[in-house]
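SAMPLE LOG
Freezer: B-3
Tube label: C17
Construct: single chain, 278 aa
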Amino acid sequence: MLIDTIIWNPGDSLIDLGFFALRYYSLCFLLAFVASYIVVKKQFVKHHLPVELMDSLTIYVVLGTLIGARLGHCLFYDFAYYAKHPLEIILPFTFTPEFKITGFQGLASHGGGLGIMFSLYLFSRKFKLNLWFLLDQIALVVPLAGMFIRLGNLMNSEIIGKPTGESWGFVFLQVDKIPRHPAQLYEAVAYLLIFIFVYQVMKRYPKASGYTFGLVIFLIFCFRMGIEFIKEDQSAFEAGMLLNMGQILSIPFILCGLTIMYLKRGKPEAPEKAAFIR
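STRUCTURE (predicted):
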């Protein structure tokens, strides 16, 4: 009975003044970057790096995340459409069947991850910082940011789970009246636990630069492999597939994480040496 489930139908905005609206997803996205900035700044101070670099690093990471996530969605999940409408990849509106301002609908976490890695490579080259060291610092906050993003998805009633008979099922009224797994909430909780675990590992068991990066992507994408089994497919072409696109894209990340952890399992360098290119 629906009385045993959670009825979920929030509006899409926390504040709507007509001329200005603060959407939940935008707020969660902002909180993700603010929380990440605070944690990474503490890491920079800890390793005696110029805090002034944080402004440039933020710009690189934000652009890398947004561009990578957008391209990832367009290429991995909806290539057939965007191949015919390439301008809509970079423009926040559609031309067909009519002109309509839509914003950027569709971001893929796998693409965002690749975008971040590429932006950090460019940043490390310009500012002469060790790429593995940078990857560790950003990897630490990736699950924290992921928690906020999934909470934004929950508020938008998107990336929903499959039907469930459990009492904690959510009825997403914007979608249908079927009790479903709150997959977004599962992911948010899992990412918070991963952040706490990795943070403790970094404090208590220092490893060579790169180990934390490998650990984070291994944990995140292992969980992603599992959670996809109770999530609805994101694109129609995934119907009937043994593994959906999210799981297929997770496999190389898992293998990459394991490989990096193995190669970087040795003793750490002195912090001041690890941070700079030699």
